[in-house]
Amino acid sequence: MKNILFVCSRNKWRSLTAETIYKNHPEFIVKSAGTENSARVKINSKLLIWADVIFVMEKHHKEKLILNFPSETKNVEIIILEIADNYKYMDKELIEEIQMSVASYL
Fold first, then answer.
1. Rounded to whole angstroms, how far apart are CA atoms 30 and 78?
2. Cβ neighbours of residue 6 closer than 8 Å, sequence gap 6 or more
3. pLDDT tens digits for range 4-22
4. In what order do the strands lie in the sheet with 2-8?
């Protein structure tokens, strides 16, 4: 089983949608978090250490993780999906974009 972490800003729409899509996948354990103080689940060291792969929605999320958690992110793969904050939770287009972006890595 591979531990996958999805990260966006507030963990309300993009990363939470990704977690919902993949939560029942037989090969993955999936969690999500946000980088902002107002996040539903705020990113922390424990989540970063737990993750085998981290998918971030935008480049600035990766930069924030590396800046704030240098030792926790040193040996983990962080993949930028390039999905802008233009969607609501479980938006059909967001689901399609996440699935297409993630498919080439899993």
1. 15
2. 14, 15, 18, 19, 30, 31, 32, 33, 54, 55, 56, 57
3. 999 999 999 999 999 999 9
4. 28-34, 2-8, 53-56, 77-80
